[in-house]
Amino acid sequence: MKKAEVLVLGAGIVGVSTALELQKRGIGTILIDRNTPGLGASFGNSGVIQREAVLPYAMPRNIITLLKTFAGQSTAARLHLPSMPAMLPFLIRYWWHSSKTRHHALATPYASLIERCIISYERAMEGTDARELLSPDGILSGFRSQRAFNAARREADLMAERFNLPLTHLEGTEAIRQVLPHIAPEFCAATQYYQSVIVSDPHALLMKLFKKFKKLGGQFVSADAMTLVQTGEGYTVSSDSGPLQGTHVVNALGAHAALLTAKFGLKLPMGLKRGYHIHFEPVPDAPLTATLADEANGYVLTPKAAGIRLTTGAEFASLTTPPSPIQIEQTEPIARKLHPLGRRVETTPWMGIRPCMPDMMPVIGEMPRQKNHWCAFGHGHQGLTLGPVTADIIADAIEGKSPKLALEPFAPGRF
Ligand SMILES: Cc1cc2nc3c(=O)[nH]c(=O)nc-3n(C[C@H](O)[C@H](O)[C@H](O)COP(=O)(O)OP(=O)(O)OC[C@H]3O[C@@H](n4cnc5c(N)ncnc54)[C@H](O)[C@@H]3O)c2cc1C
Questions:
Q1: Is 255 left (phi over 0), alpha (psi -120 to 50) or beta?
Q2: How do residues 111-126 score in pLDDT, each as one tens digit?
Q3: 308/306 Cα distance (integer angstroms)
Q4: What is the count of structural domains for the chain?
Q5: Whole-structure pTM value
Q6: Which of 145, 179, 335, 376 has the largest CB neighbor count within 10 A?
Q7: 138 in a structural domain
Q8: How far is CA 353 from CA 122, 124, 147, 289, in A?
Q9: 46 in ligand 1 pocket by Cβ < 6 Å?
């Protein structure tokens, strides 16, 4: 039998950051995953530490966009129709929370997390060589119609003023070409955010944090988190090498987290937004010099160690639905028209699942009526950004310290 103060379930960016933070504070931790670390959503995301994302990702409520999505004509969002009945409780609440007034009100709690992301990464990376994977290049949001740009501009300026975010609006191709010299004249305007940090390989970043966790004496064990049971004063997970026991347990199972909370009596309306990536060889003499979001089509193009990565928007589908990378096929020709891209590096696209809550807030805190059972999941589009921030909150709670920010908006019992 292995014993530790804390069992952390799930070795994605949230679990690894949490295990590292605990171990750094001298709290013995066993990190548990059924796979090797970092093979979930944290493996292949766009790799943007989104310091600018003070507004979480809302559902568009514009009727034309909704009709296009339901008709399967949107490249940004796709619905797997057989999964819809089960996802309806999520979708209805997500729609409700996405009204402009409610969405803008969410910026206050969300920004209280987001504004800590850079400093939390700085801390997490101390004593590692992970900084070599990061560049402070910012991100560019591109718009194909003046109308879409005007609406986005109003919102961006409002948030910039509220939260002191530096940004510049670039109008016309020549202005955009100052940042991306090889872009075709497809965008009428773009907004450049300066504070976002680009990670050249999100999986390599996670592995560097994991290595540090191990170096500090942390243990990693391969096991199924769904075997978790409450035993006496603590919690036990079964593994091939015997039971794993902890006084505390942290659920950082990403898209699978709600399966475990349900087993402990808490049903959560989690929605799953799948996303895909594929890499292209860079074209000599036409490098992609910045990370770029095509807002109308919901994809991102970003320079990565493996090539130019195209990541897709959201596909709403259940956990058991086989991958269907239609959005890669739809967006590749659009992206090729926008910027020179070489041959595909892989034949099969990668898929990851964003775990999303209908109020767009992550779930961070203690389970109702379950002492020392902590939730750390549901970070949706910004899980890479918020991994180390979440780790700091959970570690403070386990140590019994007063929280550094108001945690009610993230409480597991709020639904
Ligand atoms: C295409 C795409 C682009 C994205 N771009 C960005 C971005 O630029 N910036 C950003 O901040 N976020 C981005 N995200 C979101 C981000 O990737 C996720 O929010 C984040 O990775 C979630 O991390 P996690 O640790 O919660 O989950 P995961 O990384 O999915 O980790 C969960 C872990 O739990 C394990 N697990 C599950 N069930 C069990 C079980 N029964 N037993 C044991 N282990 C189990 C899994 O094996 C996995 O390792 C993107 C996501 C996608 C899909």
A1: alpha
A2: 999 999 999 999 999 9
A3: 7
A4: 1
A5: 0.97
A6: 376
A7: no
A8: 26, 24, 31, 28
A9: yes
